[in-house]
Amino acid sequence: MRWPRQAMSLLFVLTLLTGPPAVLLSLVGSPLRGWPTAAQAREWVQNPLTEQTLTAALTIAAWLVWLLLAYTVTIRVLTRLRATVSWLRRMPLPTPLQATASGIAGAAVFGVASNAIATPPSPPTQPVAAGSLDDAGSPTPPNVVLHDGGVSVSGGWVSREVAEQVSAAAALVWLRRRRAYRPRPPDQTSREDPDLVPLPATVAAVQAALADTPTPPTEADTTSAGTSLLGMPTAGRAFPRAGVGLTGSGARAAARGLLVTNLLAGQRHPQVTVVVTRTVLARLLGPAADTLGRRLPGLAVVDTIGEASRFFPGHPAGRDLDGRDHARRHTGETTDAGRAVPVLIIDEAAAGANADSVASLGIDAATVAVLGTWPAGQTWHVDSTGHTTHPDAGGPAGPRMCVLTQDATTDLLTVVAHTDPSPTGPDASRPFREPALPVRSPQWHATGQDHRAQSGDDNRRLHLRVLGEPTLVLDNQPLVIRRTAAIQVLVFLAAHPDGADTRQLTDAIWPGLPRRSLTGRLYTTLSDLRATIRSAAGVNIIDHSDDRYRLDPTCVTVDLWRFHQAVHDATTAVTRDTTTWKAVINAYPDELAARRTWPWLDPIRETARRHVIDAHAALASATPDARQALEWLQAGIRIDPYNADLHTRAINALIALGDHDAADHIRDGYARRLAAAGIHPNETALTTAAITGQPAIPSR
Fold first, then answer.
1. Is residue 386 part of a domain?
2. Is 332 left (phi over 0), alpha (psi -120 to 50) or beta?
3. What ranges does the record list as Basic and acidic residues composition bias (predicted)?
4. CATH number reported for the structural domain that contains residue 341 in this entry
5. Long-range pairs of 115-122 with CB within 8 A, sequence gap ≥ 24
6. What is the spatial distance between Cα 473 and Cα 421, in angstroms, rounded to a whole number?
7. Domain boundary, last residue among 418, 441, 474
8. Are 315 and 360 in contact (CB under 8 A)?
C-alpha cells in the first residue's frame, strides 16, 4: 500500500522543517538581536576569530540552509496544488444519467451481503483501448475521446453515429480483403501483399476512441450530429426544407462532414446519396477530388445544376423522353414518399444563378447545402468546432455539425471507397493514399540462437500466448496483468521480435493522441508490467536498448515465434512434403489476439492467417485423394469462412465427386454469410465466377 510510505515521507519533511529552528532557538536564541555597535565592529576587526564570532557564523549558515530547504518544499507544494487545480478543472462531470447509474450501482454494492466471496474478474472479451482509466489511472485525454456526443480527432469532430459507421466500414474493408485473397504456394516467409497496407491514421483513431467508450449512447448523443440518407446533420433536427447556407470558419469543414456523413450512411444502399458540383468537390478535397470523385460509390459529381436535378426523383429534369424517372433507372428503386433522396452540395454562385431550380429541389424534399449565404432559406454560421449560430439573430440556429479537414476527410472516405461494389481493376482494393515507400507487412527474421523452438528440456518458466486470448503463463498458471495497455505492449512486441521504439508503441496503442503526452503513460505502463513480472518470476522479459524495446527470448517463449519458425521451415525446406505444411497448421491454434479490436492488429493478424490458408491450399493440391483434399479445403474454410477461393475450390471438388447438393449448400451458405456481413451477393458471384469460369454463387 502506498499511504504508509506517503505518511512517513510527510512526517520526515515536517521534522526537517520544524526541527532545526527549534534546536537553534533553544540553544542560540533568536537570530535577530539588532545590528552590532561600532565598538563591537572594531573589536571584531582586531580579533575576528573568537568563540562568539564563530558561533554566530555557524548559526547564520544553519539558518540559510533551513531557508533553502523551506523554499524548496514551498515550491514543490505550490506546483502540486497548481497541477491538482488544473486537473480538477479538466475533470468531466457526470451527466444526470451517469449520476443515476452510479447511485444505483452504489446502492447495489451496499446491499450485498457482508459474507459475499469476491472472485477475480475474468479477462475482458473486448479491449479498453486508447486512454482507458485502466492504463494510467487518470481521465481520458481529450484529443481522441467521446465528447459532446461525438469523437474528437486531430482532423476535426464526428458524431458517435458516424464514428460507429467508420468502424463498421473499416471492418468491412478487411472482410473484403479476406474474401478476395487467393492462396498461393507458401514460398516465402514474408509477405508484400499490397492489400495488407494498414488503414489511415484517422480511421485508427476513431476505432480506438470507440473501443475506449463501449457504452451505448446517452441522452446527449441523441442531440448531436448524426446521419441520415435524407442528409440530416443530426439525429433530432433536420436541415430546413428550403436548404441552408453555411458560412464562417468551419463552413468547408462542415460541408466535408456532410459529405462523409451521407456517403457512410448510404453504403448499403445502391443509390446516389450525395450530389456535388465539380467545383465544390475540388474546393473541399483538394488534389484528391479527381480520384475520389471516380471511386466513391453513392457520389455523383456534376458540372451544372441542370445535370444534378436528374438524380432527384419526381423532378421534371429527372425524367427521360418516355416519362420514366431517371433516378429510378439509376437505383432500381421507386420514388415513394419514404425513399431517400440525395444531398446536394453547391456553392453560393451556383445557387444564386439557379435559385429557382434549387428551390424546387427543396420542395421535392431534397436537402440543399450551400457554401455561402442562401437567400432562399436559412444561413448558419459554423465555427471551427462545428457549432452553428444564426448570423443575424445571434442565437443558436442548429445543432453541432461534423467538421473535418481535407486529410481527415480523405482518410475516412478511403474506407468508403474500399467498399465499392464494382471494382474496375486488379488494384481496386488498394487505398487511395499509397505511402511513398513500399509498405511491407510485418516480417519474421528467424535467428537460430534466439528464436528457434527449443527442445523439451526448455527451462524457461514464462510463456507468452498471443494466438488466441493473450495470456502470459508462469509455470503453467496465468499471470494477472492489470493494465490493458500492458497486454497490448506484450502482443505488439511479440508481433515485432526485432523490437519497437517509443514512437511505434505509442502510435499503435494510443493512435491519434499527441505523442508528447504519451511518453509518461508508456513508461508507467512498462514500469508496472516489469514490476509485476519481476515480483512473480524474478526476471525482466522486456529489454530496452538503443531506444528499442524487445522481448528477451532467453526469458520467455512465444507461440507466435514458434508459428513463424514453422512457416520459415516450410518455405525454406529443400524437399517439400506434407509434414512441413502440417506443422504450420498445428502451430496456429487461433487467430492473433482473438476477439481484440486494436486497430494495429489487422495487417499482422491477416498476414498470419494467409500463411495458414496457403498451407491448407497446398495440402489440398498435393493430396491425390479427392476426399482428403476436400477435407483440407473445409479445414481452411474454418480458418477463414470469408475466403472466396477456398469456397470455390470446395464447391468444384464436391461437383467433381458428384455431390451437387452439398455444393449447393456451401454456395448458398457462403452467399448468406457475406450478405449478412454487408457484401452484396452480386459481388460474390462476380468474384467466384472470375476464379472458376462458372457461376459458383448465384446473384439473388
1. yes
2. left
3. 317-333
4. 3.40.50
5. 120/480
6. 45
7. 418
8. yes
Dihedral, CA atoms, 626, 673, 411, 525, nearest 10 degrees?
-80
Rounded-to-integer distance, Cα 275 and Cα 292, Å: 13
DSSP track, 72-139: HHHHHHHHHHHHHHHHHHHSPPPPHHHHHHHHHHHHHHHTS-TTPPP-PPPPPSS---TT-HHHHSSP
Residues 6 or more apart in contact with residue 686 via CB below 8 angstroms: none
pLDDT for residue 108 = 42
Q: Which residue has the higher pLDDT, 450 or 286?
A: 286
Contacts of 326 (CB under 8 A, 6+ apart): 310, 311, 318, 319, 320
Which pLDDT does position 101 carry in this prediction?
Answer: 45
Whole-number CA gyration radius for the chain: 34
Q: Sign of torsion, CA 287 291 296 299?
A: positive
Note the pLDDT tens digit of each residue in 336-370: 444 466 888 988 888 777 777 776 665 554 578 89
Looking at 398, 418, 438, the residue that finishes a domain is 418
Collapsing DSSP to helix, strand or coil, 465 comes out as strand
The predicted-structure confidence for 104-138, as pLDDT tens digits, reads as follows 444 443 343 333 323 333 333 333 233 333 333 33
* 3-class secondary-structure state, position 637: helix
590-617: per-residue pLDDT in tens? 999 999 989 999 999 999 999 999 999 9
Q: Quick one: pLDDT band at residue 24, thresholds 50, 70, 90? A: confident
The tally of domains found in the chain comes to: 2
Considering the domain boundaries, does residue 358 fall inside one?
yes
Please check whether residue 298 is in contact with residue 272, taking contact to mean a CB–CB distance below 8 angstroms: yes
- Structural domain of residue 615, as residue ranges? 564-692
Within-domain flag for 527: no
Rounded distance between C-alpha atoms, residue 80 and residue 90, angstroms: 16
CATH number for the domain including 652? 1.25.40.10
- Residue 233 lies inside a defined structural domain of this protein: yes
What is the three-class DSSP state of 325?
A: strand
Beta partners for residue 277, in sequence order: 302
Band of residue 213 on the pLDDT scale cut at 50, 70, 90: low
